[in-house]
Design brief:
The complex is a heterodimer of chains A (138) and B (386). Chain A is globular, with a radius of gyration of 16 Å. Chain A has one domain. Chain A has one helix at 15-25; strands at residues 30-34, 40-41, 56-60, 64-70, 72-73, 90-94, 99-102, 117-124, 130-136. The two termini of chain A are 26 Å apart. Helix content of chain A is 8%, strand content 33%. With 386 residues, chain B is α/β, with parallel strands linked by helices. Chain B has one domain: Peroxisomal Thiolase, Chain A, domain 1. Chain B has 14 helices and eleven strands. In chain B, the strands form two sheets. In chain B, strands 3-2-4-7-1-8-11-10-9 form a nine-stranded mixed sheet, sandwiched between helices. In chain B, helix 1 (25-40) crosses helix 2 (59-66), helix 4 (121-127) crosses helix 5 (131-138) and helix 7 crosses helix 11. Classes of the chains: A mainly beta (138), B alpha/beta (386).
Chain lengths: 138, 386
C-alpha cells in the first residue's frame, strides 16, 4: 500500500476532488452525471454547463475507454518526476465521452497508439491517495 | 483619416543569455519602457495608463520609477502570453473612452539568468487559470509544464492530419533563418540544418529541444494612444486596425474540449479581421506567438491563413520565410530571437510597418498580424497597418 518514499505531486483532497478520489480509493471510477440532461462531466464542476442544472449524481463509469492523445516526457520539468523519465501522460476518452488525464501502467512509451482500447485500474500510491490508471483492455 | 488607436512608441533591450542582463527584472522592463516613451516623443509624466504583463510587476512601481505622476488607468489582462496583444485592445478602448491618453505596455524578465522555466512549474499551479485542476488532475501524472500541455494537441494533430516532425522543423528553421538577419537575436550567428533540428534531444514528444522557445533575458514595451493624439507626435504611427481576444472552452481544462484544436484565437481571429475590414489573404507578414513550433502551425490554421489540417503543408517550401508567401516571425520569434513574452512580436511588427526592419524588411509591408497565445490556449490577435 502506501509508500513513504512517494515524491510525486498529489491532488489536494478537498471538495468535489476529495469525492472523486474517495471513490477511486474504494475501487470505483465515478464521474458526475447531470440528473436532468444526463450529460457526463469531468473535471468536477458545480453545475451542468450543458443545461444549467444543479442536480447531479456520482455515477459509475464502465472504466473502459481509448487513448485520445499522449506525450512522452523525456526531460522531467518537475522535481517530483526527476527519476521517472521517460514517462507518458495519456489522455483517455471514456465510453461515457468524458476524457481524463492518466497514464498506462502496462505500456512503454513506444507502445502507445491513439485509439488503443484501455481499462481502468487503481493504484494506491499513498495511504491517502489512490490514482486511477489504465492498462490495455482484453 | 483612421480613427483607430495607434502604437506610437516601441522600445527594447539587448536580448541575452550567457552573463545575463545584470539588472533586475523591473530595471530591465524600465529600460525598454524609457526607450518606448522616448521613441514616441513623449515625457514620462504624459503616460497616464500602464498595463503590466501578468505577475511581472505592478503599474504602481512602473509609475513611481518612471515619474508617471498622472496615472489614471492601470490594468493587467490575465492571459499569459496572449496578454500583450490582448492589452492592445484594452489600451485602445482606454484611449478611445478618455480613461487614459497614453498607455504603456511593458513586458520582460530575466528568463535565463533569473528563475528558469523548469523551476517555476510548481508556482504555476497557482498562477495559471485552472491551477487547482492542474494540481489535482494533471500534476499527479507528471503533466506539469506548458510543453507537455501543448504536446497533447500536437500529437493529436499529427494523428488526425499526418503532420510530421519535418514540418515542425520547417517552422524552427524559418525562425532560425530570420534570426541570422537580426543582430539582437540570441540565435544570430547560429544557423541550423534539418539534421541538427531532428538530432536535438526530445523534451516531451513530439517536441524536441529546437521546438521549444528560448530562455532569455530581455524586455520590450510599446506605447498606445488615439489616432488624434498620434498625429501630433513626431513619428509615423502604426494603426491598430482590428484587435480581439478569446478563450478556448473550457479555458481552465485542456483535455475535455469538444474540439481540441479550437483555441481562443479561433474565436478572436474572425473578429479582428472583421474590425480591420481585411482578410488573411491581404496580410503581408505575421508575427505568431511561437512558444513551441506546433503552436505556430495551429495558429496559422486557426487564424485562417490555411485550412484546419493544412498547416503542415503550409509551412513547407519556404512559404513562411522572408521572400515567401507569408513571412512569419521576421525577427526570429521566441524560438530564435528571444522570449520576451510576445512583446517583441509587437515591436517587430511596428518596425516592419515603419520600414525600419533593415536586412529583414518585408518589401512593401503594409498590413501585419500579431498573435498571442497563453495559459491553456488563450488567444489574441491584432491586425496592424500603416
Amino acid at each position: 500500500m502506501g509508500d513513504t518514499q512517494y515524491t510525486k505531486p498529489l491532488p489536494a483532497l478537498v471538495g468535489l476532488t476529495k469525492d472523486f478520489y474517495g471513490f477511486c480509493k474504494q475501487g470505483e471510477l465515478r464521474f458526475q452525471r447531470c440528473d436532468d440532461c444526463n450529460a457526463w462531466r469531468h473535471v468536477p464542476r458545480e453545475l451542468c454547463a450543458e443545461c444549467g442544472s444543479w442536480s447531479w449524481q456520482w455515477q459509475k463509469s464502465t472504466g473502459k475507454g481509448a487513448v485520445f492523445t499522449w506525450t512522452v516526457a523525456e526531460r522531467p520539468l518537475h522535481p517530483g518526476f526527476k527519476d521517472a523519465a521517460p514517462y507518458a501522460p495519456v489522455v483517455v476518452e471514456m465510453e461515457e465521452g468524458v476524457r481524463l488525464l492518466s497514464e498506462l501502467g502496462d505500456c512503454t512509451p513506444d507502445q502507445l497508439e491513439i485509439g488503443m482500447a484501455v481499462e481502468v485500474y487503481f493504484d494506491a500510491v499513498t495511504d491517502e491517495v489512490t490514482l486511477p490508471k489504465f492498462r490495455r483492455a482484453g | 483619416m483612421s480613427t483607430n488607436a495607434c502604437i506610437v512608441g516601441i522600445g527594447d533591450t539587448r536580448y541575452v543569455r550567457g552573463e545575463g542582463s545584470g539588472v533586475s527584472q523591473l530595471a530591465l522592463q524600465l529600460q525598454a519602457a524609457v526607450r518606448a516613451i522616448d521613441d514616441a516623443g513623449l515625457e514620462a509624466r504624459q503616460i497616464d495608463g500602464i498595463m503590466p504583463f501578468p505577475n511581472l510587476g505592478t503599474a504602481e512601481e512602473f509609475a513611481a520609477n518612471l515619474g508617471c505622476e498622472n496615472l489614471r488607468f492601470a490594468a493587467t489582462i490575465n492571459m499569459g502570453g496572449a496578454a500583450p496583444v490582448a492589452s492592445l485592445q484594452a489600451a485602445g478602448a482606454a484611449v478611445a473612452s478618455g480613461a487614459a491618453s497614453y498607455v504603456l505596455l511593458p513586458a520582460g524578465w530575466n528568463g535565463y539568468s533569473g528563475r528558469r522555466a523548469a523551476e517555476t512549474v510548481q508556482e504555476q499551479t497557482t498562477s495559471i487559470p485552472g491551477g487547482a485542476i492542474a494540481r489535482d488532475f494533471y500534476l499527479p501524472y507528471g503533466l506539469t509544464a506548458p510543453p507537455q500541455w501543448y504536446a497533447l494537441m500536437a500529437r493529436r494533430h499529427m494523428h488526425e492530419f499526418g503532420t510530421s516532425a519535418e514540418q515542425l522543423g520547417a517552422i524552427a528553421m524559418a525562425m532560425r533563418k530570420h534570426a541570422q538577419l537580426n543582430d539582437n537575436a540570441v540565435m544570430h550567428g547560429k544557423e541550423m540544418t534539418l539534421e541538427q533540428y531532428l538530432g536535438s534531444p526530445m523534451i516531451t514528444d513530439p517536441y524536441r529541444l529546437f521546438d521549444c522557445c528560448l530562455e532569455t533575458d530581455g524586455a520590450a514595451a510599446v506605447v498606445v494612444t488615439s489616432a488624434e493624439r498620434a498625429r501630433d507626435l513626431k513619428g509615423k504611427p502604426v494603426s491598430i486596425l482590428g484587435v480581439a481576444a478569446g478563450q478556448p472552452y473550457p479555458a481552465d481544462e485542456i483535455t475535455n474540449r469538444k474540439d481540441i484544436f479550437v483555441t481562443g484565437l479561433t474565436i478572436a481571429a474572425p473578429e479582428a479581421f472583421r474590425k480591420a475590414g481585411v482578410t488573411p489573404a491581404d496580410i503581408d507578414f505575421a508575427e505568431i506567438y511561437d512558444c513551441f513550433t506546433f503552436e505556430v502551425l495551429q495558429q496559422l490554421e486557426e487564424t485562417g491563413f490555411c485550412e484546419r489540417g493544412e498547416g503542415g503543408a503550409f509551412v513547407e517550401g519556404g512559404r513562411i520565410e522572408l521572400g515567401g508567401e507569408l513571412p512569419v516571425n521576421t525577427h526570429g520569434g521566441l524560438l530564435s530571437e528571444a522570449h520576451v513574452l510576445g512583446m517583441n512580436h509587437l515591436v517587430e511588427a511596428v518596425r516592419q510597418l515603419r520600414g525600419e526592419a533593415g536586412k529583414r524588411q518585408v518589401t512593401g509591408a503594409k498590413l501585419g498580424v500579431v498573435t498571442g497565445w497563453g495559459d491553456f490556449g488563450d488567444g489574441s490577435i491584432a491586425v496592424l497597418g500603416q
